[in-house]
Amino acid sequence: METFNRKLNTHIDSWLGPRDQRVRGWLLLDDYPPTFALTVMYLLIVWMGPKYMQHRQPYSCRGLLVLYNLGLTLLSFYMFYELVSAVWHGGYNFYCQDIHSAPEVDNKVIKVLWWYYFSKVIEFMDTFFFILRKNNHQITFLHIYHHASMLNIWWFVMNWIPCGHSYFGASINSFVHVVMYSYYGLSAIPAMRPYLWWKRYITQLQLIQFFLTVFHTTSAVIWPCGFPMRWLYFQISYMFTLIILFANFYIQTYKKRSVSRQKGSPAHGHTNGTPSMEHSAHKKLRVD
């Protein structure tokens, strides 16, 4: 296994260039196979989990959901606050920031971005809760693509561009997750559901974050500062895949449903993380 890791690391390094030595020895970052193995395990559970639960009663998980969503809300707020305060007081350039500036600022950003990377492992639980509660309709291609790809992308980010211009996407996504996970934490409490009217605006906020990230990334292409260009092009490309998928979700979930309501036909929605027997109103897919 050690020989395989060494060969794989050599191939990756020859393709992408030397790694950032500031993250050497950090949990999960030295070798790619653990991150890849976690992704494969996630995909296997996505495939086998619904089969296992097929003839079993769904689990409520209500208490766990409240604690889980509260925990991710607090973690997301911590990451957002720490990143914004670090780059603000550290004098990061909004339009383009290289990965080598004031060491104390870069080191703080790197530490927070490691937590952002690790949070992508924690967020696999989103899907596992769907499986346990038999909300299989919520396990869409968009959901799986987003969860599986983000963990792997951020392994590479942490090894090659763990600070500088990389901070923005994580910062704004952490803010969105504060809003999103607080919503889902509240939605796990039945008494709160009638007051949660802002689900559709979460998807709008997610789309806004993608466009802002494209703008921010493009600015570093137009006004370069030494941040690696190929990473910027990849970021823009990936953001466009999310824009397409999330926009399609929004149209399918909200726009077409509004048209069907106006025509007097029933809207066939989906649950918002709550069992169908607990919720007879129009239900919506969860997007993370």
From TrEMBL:
Chief subcellular location: endoplasmic reticulum
Domain of life per record: Eukaryota
Location in or out of the cell: Endoplasmic reticulum membrane; Cell projection, Dendrite; Membrane
One term of GO molecular function: fatty acid elongase activity
Any single biological process term in GO: long-chain fatty-acyl-CoA biosynthetic process
Keywords annotated in UniProt: Cell projection, Endoplasmic reticulum, Fatty acid biosynthesis, Fatty acid metabolism, Lipid biosynthesis, Lipid metabolism, Membrane, Transferase, Transmembrane, Transmembrane helix
Membrane topology: Multi-pass membrane protein
Chain spans, region Disordered: 261-288
UniProt keyword Iron present: no
GO CC annotation: dendrite; endoplasmic reticulum membrane
Coiled coil spans: none
Catalytic EC class: transferase
Transmembrane segments annotated in the record for this chain: 32-49, 61-81, 114-132, 144-161, 207-225, 231-251
Annotated EC: 2.3.1.199
Catalytic activity: (5Z,8Z,11Z,14Z)-eicosatetraenoyl-CoA + malonyl-CoA + H(+) = (7Z,10Z,13Z,16Z)-3-oxodocosatetraenoyl-CoA + CO2 + CoA; (9Z)-hexadecenoyl-CoA + malonyl-CoA + H(+) = 3-oxo-(11Z)-octadecenoyl-CoA + CO2 + CoA; a very-long-chain acyl-CoA + malonyl-CoA + H(+) = a very-long-chain 3-oxoacyl-CoA + CO2 + CoA; (9Z,12Z,15Z)-octadecatrienoyl-CoA + malonyl-CoA + H(+) = (11Z,14Z,17Z)-3-oxoeicosatrienoyl-CoA + CO2 + CoA
InterPro entries, per the entry: ELO_fam, ELOVL5
Pfam family name, one: ELO
Pathway the protein acts in: Lipid metabolism; polyunsaturated fatty acid biosynthesis
Protein's job: Catalyzes the first and rate-limiting reaction of the four reactions that constitute the long-chain fatty acids elongation cycle. This endoplasmic reticulum-bound enzymatic process allows the addition of 2 carbons to the chain of long- and very long-chain fatty acids (VLCFAs) per cycle. Condensing enzyme that acts specifically toward polyunsaturated acyl-CoA with the higher activity toward C18:3(n-6) acyl-CoA.
The family this protein is said to belong to: Belongs to the ELO family. ELOVL5 subfamily.
Name the UniProt record assigns to this protein: Elongation of very long chain fatty acids protein 5
